[in-house]
Structure formats: C-alpha cells, structure tokens
C-alpha cells in the first residue's frame, strides 16, 4: 500500500466508527495527539491522588476513610491502565514520567487547588469527578481501541466516585450549621475551577476540529461545559447550596442556564504553574519517584540475579 | 468478657492501617502504591469489624462498669450520658492510654525498607496468630479470624518477597533492609508477652497462646532473612508497654491526625 492508501484505509475506519488498534497504520499527528492526551489523562489521575490523599489520615469516620482510601486507589488504577494504553503507541511509562517531572507534560489544572476542609472531599467527588465523567463518557467510543476500552472501566468507577462525593455533600447539607457552611465554602472554591476543567472556549481551542474528525474528542469544550452547568445547577438545588455565580440564570429561549464570565486569566496562570499548589503537587511526585529509585533498582537487580540463577540451574 | 482482647486486636489493625495508608500516592512505583493501599484497606476493614464487635460488648455492660472502663475524657463523657457507643467513638475519642496496640505498629514509615520490615514482623505474627484463631469459642472472633487469615496470607507473601528482593538486591538496598530489620527488632518481643488479658483469653477458649507461636515466628523470620542474605538480630532487650497503654512518642501524632475531625466538630454525622 502507498501512504495515500494507508491514509484512505485509516479514514475509512474512522468514518465507519470502528476502532484503530495498535498495529494499524495511523498518521503521525494522530499518534502524537493521542500520546499527549492519554498521558495527560494518566498524569491527572496520579497527581489527582494527592489532594484527596491529603485527607485519608483525617477522614471523619472509619467508613468515610475506607471509601476515600479505595477511591484514591482507584485513581492509581486508572493511571495504570491509561499509562498502559499510551504505551501501545510507542512511548514508555518512564518517558511519560520524565515529561511530567520536567514540566513538559501537563495534567488537569484542577489538582493545583488545595483541599483545606473535609467538605473538599465531597466537592471534588461531586464537581471534579462529575466534570471528568462528562469529558470522559464520550471517550468510551473514541477511535483508538485501547483508550476507548480503558475509558469504559474508568467511567464506571468515576460515576461511583461522583455519587459518593454527592453523598458527602448531601450529608453535610443536612447537618449542622457549621457543616452547611463547610459545604457552601467548598462549593464556592471548586465551582469555577470545575468549569475551567473543560478547557478554553471553543474559539480559542485550535485543535478541536481535527480531534473531532478523529473521534478523539466528541463534543466541544463549550458544549460540555454548558451541559455541566445545567446538570450541576439542578443538583445544587437538591443540596440547598447556592451556585457562586450572580449571573447564573435560566434562559428559556436557549433551554440552558446562562452563566457568568470565567476568569481565563486565572486558568492560564494555573496552567503555567502559578496555581496555589503546582509546585507542591509536582514536588510530591518527584520526591516519590526519586526516593523510590533505590527500591526500583533493587527490584531490577534481584530479578536479574534470579534469572541468572535459574539459567544456571537449567544448565546444571 | 472478650472486650479487652478484641480492643487490642482492633487497635493493632487500626494503627498499622493508618501507617500504611500514609503511603497512598507516594509509593516507589505505581503497582506498589496500589498494593500497599490495598493492604491498608484490609487492616482498616479488620479494625472496623473488631471495633464494631467491641462496641457491642461494651454497650451490653452494666452502666457502672462502663463508666469506669475508659480513661479518655471525651469517650468517658459520652458513656456517662448512658448513650451507646459505636466503632467511631472507640477509634476517635480515646487518647493514647486507652489505645493498646503494639509499639511496633505505630513506628513511622521512614522509607520502604522500614515499612517492609515492620510489615514483615507483624504479618508473620498475624499469619500464625489468625491461623491459631480459626478454632475459636467465640463465633464472632472466629468469623473475623477466618476472613483475616486469607488477607494476612497475602500480606505475608508480599512483605516477605520484598524483604528478599531488598536484601538480595543492590548493596544499597541490602544495607537499608538490614538497618530496618535491626532497628525495629526491639519492638518484636512485645508480640509474645502473655499478660492477664492473654491468659484469660486462652482460658476462655477465644485467645491464642503466644508461647506456642513464638518459635514458629522466629523460624519463619530466620528462614526469610536467610534467603534475603540478611542477618537475624540477636539483641534480647525489648521495648514494651503498648498493651498497657504506654506508648512511644509516635502514637500521639497519629491520634492528633486521625481524630482531628471528631475533636474539632464533635457529635456530628459525616
């Protein structure tokens, strides 16, 4: 086949909504874009363990502690299968870590905000996992097979996370005055960063058209953001919490909520490393990696020794 | 009356679970982050079963006895109102002198070698202990022991394999593993000290005679250390006190963190 016919074959797979598999030919840009997107997603899971991990030792009840611990562990699992999915595209996990640690690779900016009260565990589950699900459900039908299959499992667990987050918020909102205050305070802090999770406005998102063509992306940033605002506003009513946006108003004509202007200056600053926890999060990961080096080296050395001994035993 | 016995086993599980959970998100490699968190969850699950059983036993006691049982003010005040207590009250409202865990388990993680050494000593003990607990006159303890043995069997395999890997890995890992094995050794004697609570438990048919498992423990530890090219420590002076509520400085900090929410916002539903 010529390059031209390779491309035609690839396009036809995309067009008939079938999946591209690791051994299929794919355009370089498709491969690069996917590596960037999947590794960014994997990094987000791993960095995302930190803000919630911050409350494991302080969870208010043993049941909440067990659920939180299991949840953060799920995120490690998601990181694991996303790194594996990215590896099928010809990059190693160590290379992806290097990109994360050097600051070359990005992760979701939301995790650069601090978790200062227990209610943040509720708000993250409800809002952050809620926004993540909206971004991710369409990816269960994305064109790259290993990614799509990983996302099916990720989404199942994320929807459980979202429910448990909402349930924490519900318990707080039905609780004492101070608990309600705690819930509202967390909502106020996490609402806007959650809206930013969908990425820059469509007009400033140059890759959207190509990504939609490739079915790496299935809805635009603004479409998903609107859906999130509509759904979450209704959920806030159930909780008796106030959406921290004075411009939020139902628009009968559009059939959607209108909402206020997002502070994109803040968004870009956090992306660039100026968020409240960027350095702290990245340092925690780098420290874990560097402190773990002698452990990984030992495991490798031991495996080598064992292999050599087994080989010798066979000869003898 | 199995309460004291149940509580010490629960506290062991709670404190080691807490320590292991501190690794979550910070492990040396992602697969081990998951493994260590899984183990933390097993210990926490066992702590919960045992605390629930302890609460049930406590609530059935006569009020005067209940008023005398714990020393910690927060729990004492709750008990004096005549209210029933639950797993969370026991975990979050007692100070160190009511905690009866082994000193070994409250020692800090420090690094992967210390964490592994601490688990290795305890998992080996637990494996033998819960094995012996299978035949138990107390059906609740028997059920918990049955579930625990399955988990502990896996924990022991995990920590033993790491002792071997680190001991027989690089020079650096060998050194670190031997240091951790040596430094934590002084906390292992307490596992086998038979006090009144243990004697009662053995007589009542719901406890384990620690004298019978001690030689097996030593043999098993020695065998794994040998395979790991490590040396079995020979020091005989041992630290004790956990079973009587006399702890190292470490426990206070664990409780400060563990109990923060219930102390700062008492009496609420979470």
Q: What's this model, at a glance?
A:
The complex is a heterodimer of chains A (316) and B (270). With 316 residues, chain A is mainly α.
What's the multimeric state? heterodimer
Question: Cα-atom Rg of chain A, whole angstroms?
Answer: 22 Å
CATH structural class of chain B: Mainly Alpha
Report the sheet-strand fraction of chain A.
under 5%
- The amount of helix of chain B comes to 55-70%
Instruction: Please state the CA-atom Rg of chain B, rounded to the nearest Å.
Output: 19 Å
Order of helices and strands of chain B: HHHHHHHHHHHHH
- Average the pLDDT over all residues of chain B and give the rounded result: 97
Structural class of chain A: mainly alpha
Q: Under CATH, the topology of chain B is which?
A: Ferritin
If helices are DSSP runs of H or I spanning 4 or more residues, what is the number of helices of chain B?
Answer: 13
Beta-strand segment tally of chain A: 2
- The amount of beta strand of chain B, in percent, is under 5%
**Span between termini of chain B:** 31 Å
Question: What is the approximate shape of chain A?
Answer: globular
Poorly predicted ranges of chain B (pLDDT <50, ≥5 residues)? none
Largest sheet report of chain B? none
Number of domains of chain B: 1
Tally of DSSP helical segments of chain A? 12
Describe this structure in words.
The complex is a heterodimer of chains A (316) and B (270). Chain A has 316 residues and is an all-alpha fold. Chain A has helices spanning 3-15, 28-53, 62-87, 93-102, 119-136, 145-173, 177-196, 208-213, 221-239, 264-274, 278-291, 293-315; strands at 249-251, 256-258. Chain A has a two-stranded antiparallel sheet. In chain A, α3 runs antiparallel to α6 (145-173). Chain A starts with a helix and ends with a helix. In chain A, 40% of the residues are buried. The model of chain A has no long low-confidence stretch (mean pLDDT 95). Chain B is an all-alpha fold and 270 residues long. Chain B has a single domain (3-235, 243-264), classed as Ferritin (Up-down Bundle). The two termini of chain B are 31 Å apart. The mean pLDDT of chain B is 97.
